From TrEMBL:
Region (Disordered): 571-657
Native species: Cricetulus griseus (Chinese hamster)
Cellular-component GO terms for this entry: Golgi medial cisterna; Golgi trans cisterna; membrane
PANTHER family: PROTEIN HID1
Bias (Low complexity): 643-657
One Pfam entry name: Hid1
Sorted UniProt keywords: Membrane, Transmembrane
Name of protein: Protein HID1 isoform X3
InterPro entries given in the database record: Hid-1/Ecm30
Coiled-coil residue spans: none
Lineage: Eukaryota, Metazoa, Chordata, Craniata, Vertebrata
Segments crossing the lipid bilayer: none
Amino acid sequence: MGSADSKLNFRKAVIQLTTKTQPVEATDDAFWDQFWADTATSVQDVFALVPAAEIRAVREESPSNLATLCYKAVEKLVQGAESGCHSEKERQVVLNCSRLLTRVLPYIFEDPDWRGFFWSTVPGAGRGGQGEEDDETARPLAESLLLAIADLLFCPDFTVQSHRRNNVDSAEDVRSLDSCEYIWEAGVGFAHSPQPNSIHDMNRMELLKLLLTCFSEAMYLPPSPESGSTNPWVQFFCSTENRHALPLFTSLLNTVCAYDPVGYGIPYNHLLFSDYREPLVEEAAQVLIVTLDHDSATSTTCTVDGTTTGTAMDDAEPPGPENLFVNYLSRIHREEDFQFILKGIARLLSNPLLQTYLPNSTKKIQFHQELLVLFWKLCDFNKKFLFFVLKSSDVLDILVPILYFLNDARADQSRVGLMHIGVFILLLLSGERNFGVRLNKPYSVRVPMDIPVFTGTHADLLIVVFHKIVTSGHQRLQPLFDCLLTIVVNVSPYLKSLSMVTANKLLHLLEAFSTTWFLFSASQNHHLVFFLLEVFNNIIQYQFDGNSNLVYAIIRKRGVFHQLANLPTDPPSIHKALQRRRKTPEPLSRAGSQEGASMEGSRPAAPAEPGTLKTSLVATPGIDKLTEKSQVSEDGTLRSLEPESQSSSAEGSPSEGILSWKSKLPLQTIMRLLQVLVPQVEKICIDKGLTDESEILRFLQHGTLVGLLPVPHPILIRKYQANSGTAVWFRTYMWGVIYLRNVDPPIWYDTDVKLFEIQRV
């Protein structure tokens, strides 16, 4: 039958369904088969031929027909899974039912009265639909659907390569098939890479799309710490009820991490071949991060250092969370598996950066946000992976793309979520000493970025990008300033040598944050000054020798420190400072920051195009909730500190609060440094009539402050700690990304989602 005819028949069936006021019997196969039996409709056709208004009309006016449509479609999938889909016709039925359910499910979820429908048992629709079982043994529709999808994802000649060479009679029995032998891609726990097959890829993708749609019920519940902990669809799919949980987890992870968008290393290859892998990889990444949506703050996964050989999963671990996907992820432990995952994620994250060398030479992937969520989950659930990442300078292959994205998105309101996840990952990494040590590696890769040119290390790159975000990002990034500076504080004791460009940037930030109107205009603003002073103190006390550039910059800008020491605390002066603010439109002036030319080949960070869609995000917890303070002792071990009372941020009239924190400003070390070095530097200038910086820098390089500074303070690290606030933030961010990225077909578009709002820039 021609596709025009089949579309017409399908459309007729839809119209009949919406106009019939009488319930259609479930046994009326002639009617129901019109929806899937002899049609060849693409998923795009299904979306066009089944308009939203009509789905809602059936839901309101003939609910029993919608119910029958759903359970007949599920029944067809169950039959397909049981028979093994050997004929082309059976496969077509499975795909058609899958597309139809993908279309209809969001409209079931948006109506609270329907939400329980898939979790109820349909009388007479037990296994095989014979109606012989009593209702106790009948599974809820949702469970039958999920198990059928899982079976179909390992269906020989449909979604995986058949292992049988001979005729059809000995077709593999789906029930006895060991799906671990049919994992989709080599990688973790599987060495064999099957032949690429674009038809299998497309079939897998369609089934994963349906799976993702099943999981998306979460989008129709408002954000709250309670609502998110268990998504019943994910909970069942990732439980021991699903016999394919392990091979499917491995298939998804390996498919993502093995993907090479460059196409066998040949530039411009993607222009010659259509890539069926990419849509599958995107879908796999999205399904994977949703199955891993598990609140780590509430779970009790402990880690024990026992490793077993021969298996990819660490069996010596105590039993982890009920969610098997989280459990498997937390138990990966072999070095070669970590290497495979890290290299894969780094390769994909770096892909957009490659574009800048040979424009259009490689396919530009769009799923970097899903990859960042996946990387976050790996580090959060598997501490051995986190330590592996930090063990070598490979971590820099993750850092550079993140800094690239942060810098590129800083002016774009629609990418606030991307800014947050990038900063959260760096905050998590910065809690580990090794991260600070790794940053000392010289930065030679020249990715064109809209930042000043500098010669230095990865630490310089990080600080220069952070400075750019603070001084030329948009207003909605201000809540991130605490996080950005906390990261710099965490790494500062390990930074051996900052460039002059970076030293000037840090002092420019101090200047901007310590203006009286900025300090007095919000009760929390003084925290930023405290963080910067802590950075300077750490470097002076622990890395003085290599940091003559910073010491020189501090000497040049010594006025800022004197001004801080003499902050006015009387109400009239404070009032005057706040009045002055009204005249200053720009919150942080760029004056005095000596921008310098941007890197060659870079484009300025652009704001969002007007009309760009974005999803709202919940507020993130404050830095005191996001992190936990630890003190580094002599032998390098960490000791947790009691959270101190928040008296330093006293609300109320500004002068009461200012008096309490002004006395706590940690200025002693810097004042002592100035007291010792300024007269010496001035003497050199007078003696030699110097205007030349190099001579002074040479003097500072060989100078020493041993015995002249106060006793070094203990190093404080603020480590990220999981909490319910961030769990809710990640859930809304992740689903917002998935909502916006699925536009063809637009699965959730114009449905009544509750987890976030859809806004236009």
